[in-house]
C-alpha cells in the first residue's frame, strides 16, 4: 500500500512544475504591452505569452492570468491591442509589469489613442489591433484569441526579448561569430 502524507508543504525541486518553471525562465519571449480600454479607463500590462494562431483569418492569442485587471477588461471589452516593444523600451516594460501604478503607466512612453479607442505605443516595433473572438479558460490563465483588424511593423527596429529575468535583443543567426572548433553546443546570442 502506498503511504501518502496529508497537508505536506515540502517543495520538490524535481517536480514537473518546478522543472517547467526553470525551463520557461530560459525560454526567450518577445515582450509586449497588451492594452484595452473601457468607458472609464485605459489599462495595459506587460505580456510575453503572445503568439500567432492563423493567417486565415489573421489572428493571434494572448494568455492572461485570471486574477489580472486586464483579464477582466478583455472579458468585457471586444477590442485589444498588442504593442511589441523595442530594444529601447525596457522602462515601458517595467512600468507595465507592475512597477508603476495602473493609472500612471501611460506616462511612460509615447502613447496615442487608436481610432478603435485603445492606447497604442507609437514607437513600438509593431502594433496589432484585434477583436476578441474567443476566451478559453485553462488552469490559472485564459487564452484570448483575437482576430487582427490592423497591424503595423517598424522594419528599422528589433523587438525586446525577455529570458532568465533579463532583457535581450536578438540578432540574426547569420551575424553570429563562428564557434570555436570542437564546440558542440549551440549558442544563442541575444
UniProtKB/TrEMBL annotation:
The keyword Lyase does not apply. The keyword Oxidoreductase applies. InterPro entries: Flavin_Rdtase-like_dom, NADH-dep_flavin_reductase, Split_barrel_FMN-bd. It comes from the Bacteria. GO terms for molecular function: FMN binding; riboflavin reductase (NADPH) activity. Residues 24-169 form the Flavin reductase like domain. Gene3D superfamilies: Electron Transport, Fmn-binding Protein, Chain A. Keywords: Oxidoreductase. This is Flavin reductase family protein. It comes from Flavimaribacter sediminis.
Amino acid at each position: 500500500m502506498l503511504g501518502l502524507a496529508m497537508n505536506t508543504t515540502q517543495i520538490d525541486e524535481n517536480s514537473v512544475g518546478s522543472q517547467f518553471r526553470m525551463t520557461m525562465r530560459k525560454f526567450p519571449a518577445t515582450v509586449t504591452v497588451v492594452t484595452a480600454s473601457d468607458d472609464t479607463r485605459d489599462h495595459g500590462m506587460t505580456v510575453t505569452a503572445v503568439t500567432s494562431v492563423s493567417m486565415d483569418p489573421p489572428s493571434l492569442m494572448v494568455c492572461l492570468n485570471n486574477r489580472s485587471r486586464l483579464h477582466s477588461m478583455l472579458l468585457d471589452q471586444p477590442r485589444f491591442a498588442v504593442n511589441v516593444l523595442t530594444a529601447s523600451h525596457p522602462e515601458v516594460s517595467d512600468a507595465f509589469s507592475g512597477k508603476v501604478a495602473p493609472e500612471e503607466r501611460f506616462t511612460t512612453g509615447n502613447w496615442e489613442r487608436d481610432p478603435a479607442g485603445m492606447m497604442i505605443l507609437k514607437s513600438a516595433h509593431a502594433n496589432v489591433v484585434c477583436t476578441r473572438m474567443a476566451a478559453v479558460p485553462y488552469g490559472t490563465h485564459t487564452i484570448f484569441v483575437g482576430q487582427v483588424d490592423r497591424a503595423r511593423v517598424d522594419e528599422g527596429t528589433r523587438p525586446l526579448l525577455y529570458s532568465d529575468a533579463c532583457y535581450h535583443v536578438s540578432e540574426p543567426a547569420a551575424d553570429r561569430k563562428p564557434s570555436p572548433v570542437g564546440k558542440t553546443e549551440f549558442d544563442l546570442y541575444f
